[in-house]
């Protein structure tokens, strides 16, 4: 019997045009996706697509499944949403959690835009789930989470919104400020100033220093971006921040330097529960569009 997961896999393949991209969209490994396709082909006793075809080409049976997926999946989603909805829930706030402290700067205009477009709806930006936002999302305590670190959880769907560059923020009079870019070795033993996040979870450590076997110096934390920037300006250490963060450094003697010759780039995902994916909920869909536009504008303005 053909299952909904098979239809979602086929549709992802049609939308992305490759096994690797379809696996990323479904947030499974490529081998797991291939296994699903082989299982489906066994059940229908036919091939779904032509192997090694560029661009990817579906068989007649595959096209039939794509058509079925495009017809059935939206109806299933709409029915689930309808069954879950009640009069009291119609105007319940859309609850957003984030694990990026510096996102607040451009999230507030997003909330204002949303309110202008949907005056009868409400967005709640909840900061109390900083370290367990994805768990709160799965438990229906949040409706959408902004994160750079997706997890392999079949209950959640991760929608890629944009890419942003993480830079090293340093005092203008420091030796590091004179570099076109810094290497991991140049930061060995350097004091790291950050938001109250474990050192091992910082992008600077996880994706730049640790892979090179470099150990940073002590960590100092603070909750507010302005305070963090002021401490760097006072020579207390350095920080890694999204490129847009320096817009808050007006009047401070700070600059940013690339991490590595090619820079350190991180993705921005919107995470939702699979029963409320963007195409199934117009409010979530619009919020995601506004966020994607805001992050792109923030990066461009850097």
Explain the overall architecture.
The protein has about 300 residues and is an alpha/beta fold. The protein folds into 3 domains: about 5-85, Orthogonal Bundle (Arc Repressor Mutant, subunit A), CATH 1.10.10.10; about 95-160 and about 265-300, 3-Layer(aba) Sandwich (D-Maltodextrin-Binding Protein, domain 2), CATH 3.40.190; about 165-265, Periplasmic binding protein-like II (D-Maltodextrin-Binding Protein, domain 2). About 40% of the residues lie in helices and about 20% in strands. The protein has helices at about 5-15, 20-25, 30-45, 60-85, 105-115, 135-140, 205-210, 225-235, 280-300; strands at about 50, 55-60, 95-100, 125, 145, 155-170, 180, 190-195, 220, 240, 255-260, 265-275. The strands form 3 sheets. Strands 3, 4, 5, 6, 7, 10, 11 and 12 form an 8-stranded mixed sheet that branches. A two-stranded antiparallel ribbon has the order 1-2. A two-stranded parallel sheet has the order 8-9. The longest helix is centred in the N-terminal third of the chain and has 25 residues, at about 60-85. It starts with a helix and ends with a helix. The mean pLDDT is about 85.
């Amino acid at each position: 019997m053909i299952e909904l997961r098979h239809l979602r896999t086929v549709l992802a393949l049609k939308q992305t045009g490759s096994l690797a991209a379809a696996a990323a969209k479904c947030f499974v490994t490529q081998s797991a996706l291939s296994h699903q396709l082989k299982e489906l082909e066994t059940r229908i006793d036919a091939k779904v697509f032509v192997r090694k075809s560029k661009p990817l080409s579906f068989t007649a049976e595959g096209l039939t499944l794509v058509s079925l997926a495009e017809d059935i999946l939206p109806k299933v989603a709409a029915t689930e949403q309808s069954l879950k909805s009640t009069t009291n829930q119609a105007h319940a706030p859309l609850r957003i959690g984030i694990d990026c402290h510096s996102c607040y700067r451009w999230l507030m205009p997003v909330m204002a835009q949303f309110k202008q477009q949907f005056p009868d709806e409400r967005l709640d930006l909840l900061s109390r789930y900083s370290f367990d936002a994805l768990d709160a999302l799965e438990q229906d305590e949040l409706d959408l989470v902004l994160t750079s670190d997706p997890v392999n959880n079949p209950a959640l769907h991760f929608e890629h919104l944009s890419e942003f560059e993480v830079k090293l923020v340093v005092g203008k009079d420091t030796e590091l400020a004179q570099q076109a870019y810094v290497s991991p070795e140049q930061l060995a033993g350097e004091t790291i100033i950050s938001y109250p996040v474990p050192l091992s979870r910082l992008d600077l450590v996880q994706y730049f220093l640790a892979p090179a076997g470099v150990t940073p110096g002590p960590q100092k934390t603070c909750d507010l971006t302005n305070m963090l920037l002021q401490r760097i300006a006072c020579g207390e250490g350095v920080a890694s921040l999204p490129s847009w963060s320096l817009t808050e450094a007006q009047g401070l003697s700070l600059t940013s330097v690339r991490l590595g010759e090619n820079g350190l780039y991180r993705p921005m995902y919107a995470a939702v529960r699979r029963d409320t994916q963007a195409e199934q909920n117009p409010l979530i869909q619009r919020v995601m569009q506004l966020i994607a536009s805001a992050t792109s504008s923030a990066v461009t303005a850097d």
